[in-house]
Amino acid sequence: MSNVEQFRPRNGYFLSFWAFFTISTLTYVNVLDYGFRGGLPSITWGLFACSLFYLIFLHPKVVYCDEGIVIVNPMQNITLGWNEISLIDSRFTMYVIQQSSGAKYHAFAAQAPGRYHIRNVHPTEIRGMQLNDSGSIKAGESPRSNSGIAIAIARTRFESFHQRGNIEGLKFSIAFNRSGASIVLFLFLLAITTQLLQS
Questions:
Q1: CA 72, CA 179: separation in Å to the nearest integer?
Q2: pLDDT, tens digit, for every residue of 136-190?
Q3: In the structure, what pLDDT confidence band is assigned to residue 133 with cuts at 50, 70 and 90?
Q4: What is the DSSP code string of 78-133?
Q5: Within 13 Å of residue 42, how many CA atoms lie on the same side as its CB?
Q6: CA 72, CA 75: separation in Å to the nearest integer?
Q7: 187-to-52, 66, 182, 193 alpha-carbon distances in Å
Q8: 12-51 b/e (C-beta count within 10 Å ≥ 16 → b)
């Protein structure tokens, strides 16, 4: 992979920080009230909740390179070469369609705004964008939305790949996030065990 670029939404950092701070504060107060042993279930449930928030808000991203795109979702990593993609669009999230199978792969990190978001887009914000025949854009293509930014980068890389024509695309693959699932499952079982031992 060459010329790698990553997209991860900024609001994910804020939401995860807020979640980690709230969970750690509640856990700390619980330990102060009941001691370490009495607060052990709170600690383990807090760790479980933090691992979930990490998977939902911090782990997802979209990785672009000259050869293709890697969509990192909470439980899956999807790798596609630009030569295998027939369409890049958005509905709820940014998605790409694989040319051979017609399968649609959504990017969890690039969520689209509501349909009324487009009313707040100023004409100067879409200057220089490649618009469709109607001269308008969908809410998911708004340059102020996560999906809009991700789509703009993807379409630029997609066009560059096809213009150059001498680059071999990435090989298609779908990988399950085993480490993330294992950690979440382990912390869930640990939290249940400590809860049962304390009761």
A1: 14
A2: 556 566 676 778 888 888 988 999 888 887 788 889 999 999 999 999 999 999 9
A3: very low
A4: EEEEGGGEEEEEEESEEEEEETTT--EEEEEEEE---GGGGGG--GGGGTT----T
A5: 18
A6: 8
A7: 10, 38, 9, 10
A8: beeebeebbeebeeebeebbeeeeeeebbbbbbbbbbbbb
- Confidence at 2, pLDDT banded by 50, 70, 90: confident
Contact 111, 91 (CB under 8 A): no
pLDDT digits (tens, 9 = 90+) for 28-85: 999 998 888 888 999 999 999 999 999 999 999 999 998 999 999 999 999 999 999 9
Count of C-beta atoms within a 10 Å radius of residue 120: 11
- Spatial distance between the Cα atoms of 152 and 157, rounded to a whole number of angstroms: 9
Q: Quick one: angle between helices 178-198 and 40-53, nearest 10?
A: 160
> For the chain, what are the domain ranges?
8-58+179-198, 62-176
142: left (phi over 0), alpha (psi -120 to 50) or beta: beta
Per-residue model confidence (pLDDT) at position 132: 47
- Burial level of 75, CB count in 10 A (0-12/13-18/19+)? middle
Q: How far apart are CA 115 and CA 123, in angstroms?
A: 17
